[in-house]
Design brief:
The structure is a single chain. This protein has one domain. 63% of the residues lie in helices and 0% in strands. The protein is built from 4 helices and no strands. Helix 2 runs antiparallel to helix 3. The protein is globular, with a radius of gyration of 14 Å.
Length: 83
């Protein structure tokens, strides 16, 4: 896959935000257990990876949105996803 193709298939800002918001209820349900275990649950990690949000932190050279894109998204929302 070329870089041009990868960027053409990249999710939109709105799609990324929707994916993040969809995680909030399940993450909230597991929050107490994660706190008591002092670790993020395997279910949370798998669910997060399934959304593809972790790929937004990869550099553009790897055909994914760059870290700056995440910073722009955070600036647009003005608050963390869970609030």
């Amino acid at each position: 896959m070329s870089i041009a193709t990868a960027f053409a298939e990249a999710p939109t800002y709105e799609d990324l935000i929707a994916r993040g918001h969809a995680l909030v209820p399940d993450f909230a349900d597991r929050a107490a257990r994660c706190e008591s275990d002092c670790r993020v649950s395997d279910e949370s990690v798998e669910q997060f990876r399934h959304t593809g949000l972790h790929k937004t932190l990869l550099p553009a050279a790897q055909a994914r949105p760059a870290r700056e894109e995440v910073e722009v998204m955070m600036q647009r929302t003005g608050e963390p996803l869970g609030r």
